[in-house]
Every structure is written in C-alpha cells, then in structure tokens.
C-alpha cells in the first residue's frame, strides 16, 4: 500500500507516533540515509540478479514460485520474469555490467555494511532503528536463501552479518 521505506517510516511516525529513529543524532540519520540508498538502490538489485539472472538461482526460484505447476507453464513464466528483471536492471544501470562486476559491487556493499556494523548488535548500537529494518531483509535474502551463487556464498562468510540477521529475526519475529 505504501511503496517506499521512507514513506512507510513517515506514515508510521505521523499516524501512530512510532519513530524508530527518535534517539539518533543528525549525523547518524545522515549515515542511515546513505546506507539506506545503497541497500535499496544497489544491493537490492544484486539480490534480484542473484535470484533471477544468475543461472544458479533458477532452480530455487522455480521451486519457490511454481512448485506443483506444469513445467511448460513455469518455464514460460520464469522466462518472462527473468527478461523483465534484466530489462529493469539494464534501465537501472547495474544490468549493463558483467556478472563479475555486479558481484564485485555487491561484495563492496556487503563489506561496507559489515565494516560499519562491526561488533555492534544493530547498526547504531543496542537498539533497532529504521536502517536495520532496511538492511536486514536485503542481506538476509542473500544469506538465508539457499542459492549458492558467488555473492550469496560471500555474504555467508561475513560472521557479523550472519549473527546480525539472527539477532534481527529474533528481535522482530521471535525466532
């Protein structure tokens, strides 16, 4: 219904007085905005590439999306989805690069997130903020989805990110 995390955040604040970032400094909010844009406008697309373009992702996506449907239909549908993803990625710009470059960009994004997170429980310390709600699902899509692409395997080598996703899931979903 509300198609952007910053709009969702504003809606929650204005409608319910719910502000995950009420204790952040101006500097922390600026850092969060930069990481939010990197995650939503860059790393997200690398996750799309991981699932829909890299051939290693296809078996998982076929099973996750179409399990039980006739293979002839699923192949045709997946081909359309894959072509749409490629077209959107090309328009975005990231789809104009080689797989090696795309995954190198993703590794740099993961390194930046991992390096900033360090040994903290959450991005800015002991409490969840909106940037955690933005970053965790995108990173979890690489770490937890059983697709063994180069970028997913790399994400899983980041012990602090793996632990971060586990903490986030426990805090948000109780599991």
Précis, in short:
It is built from eight helices and no strands. It is an all-alpha fold and 175 residues long.
CATH fold field value: Glutathione S-transferase Yfyf (Class Pi), Chain A, domain 2
- Major sheet, described briefly? none
Q: What's the end-to-end separation, in Å? A: 26 Å
Portion in strands: under 5%
| Low-pLDDT runs | none
**Mean pLDDT across all amino acids:** 93
What is the SS-derived class? mainly alpha
> What is the approximate shape?
globular
Number of strands: 0
CATH class: Mainly Alpha
Order of helices and strands: HHHHHHHH
CATH architecture, by name, is Up-down Bundle
SSE layout:
Blueprint: H1 5-16, H2 26-53, H3 58-66, H4 71-92, H5 99-117, H6 130-143, H7 150-156, H8 159-173
Helix pairs in contact: 2-4, 2-5, 2-6, 5-7, 6-8
């Amino acid at each position: 219904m509300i198609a952007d995390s910053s709009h969702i955040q504003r809606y929650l604040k204005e409608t319910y007085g719910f502000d995950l970032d009420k204790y952040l400094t101006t500097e922390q909010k600026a850092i969060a905005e930069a990481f939010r844009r990197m995650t939503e406008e860059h790393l997200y697309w690398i996750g799309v590439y991981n699932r829909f373009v890299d051939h290693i992702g296809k078996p998982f996506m076929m099973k996750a999306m179409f399990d039980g449907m006739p293979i002839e239909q699923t192949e045709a549908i997946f081909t359309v989805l894959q072509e749409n993803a490629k077209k959107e990625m090309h328009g975005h710009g990231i789809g104009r690069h080689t797989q090696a470059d795309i995954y190198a960009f993703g590794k740099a994004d993961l390194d930046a997130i991992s390096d900033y997170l360090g040994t903290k429980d959450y991005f800015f310390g002991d409490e969840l903020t909106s940037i955690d709600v933005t970053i965790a699902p995108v990173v979890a899509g690489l770490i937890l989805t059983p697709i063994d692409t180069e970028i997913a395997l790399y994400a899983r080598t980041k012990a602090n990110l793996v632990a971060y996703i586990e903490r986030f899931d426990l805090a948000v979903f109780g599991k």
